[in-house]
Amino acid sequence: MTPIHFAFSTTFLLGLAGLAFHRTHLLSALLCLEGMMLSLFIALSLWALHLDSTNFSTAPMLLLAFSACEASAGLALLVATARTHGTDRLQSLNLLQC
């Protein structure tokens, strides 16, 4: 495994570990998701450059577009949660109560 592959795998796994183990605030979960998407975007961009093929050059831009949509939906949920519950702590959210 090259150092570049190790670095991107490590950043993705650190984002995944942060998402799995540090679930106190919704904002921290969104930041972990964005870190995972950023590592995927850079890894996919470098992979497309390494292959020197125009067929794979649109894949990083498509991932970036989906990542932007995910970020906007997450921020909208964060604002809605903060307005209705007064906090972004995930312990205050109850799925059984609307």
TrEMBL record:
Q: What is its EC number?
A: 7.1.1.2
Determine the domain of life of the protein's source: Eukaryota
Would you identify the family this protein belongs to, as annotated?
Belongs to the complex I subunit 4L family.
Location(s), subcellular: Mitochondrion inner membrane; Mitochondrion membrane
Q: What is this protein called?
A: NADH-ubiquinone oxidoreductase chain 4L
The record's gene field reads ND4L
A Gene Ontology cellular-component term? respiratory chain complex
Which species?
Answer: Paretroplus maculatus
One GO process term, biological-process aspect: ATP synthesis coupled electron transport
Bilayer-crossing residues are 6-22, 29-49, 61-82
Q: Specify the protein's topology with respect to the membrane.
A: Multi-pass membrane protein
Q: Which Pfam families match?
A: Oxidored_q2
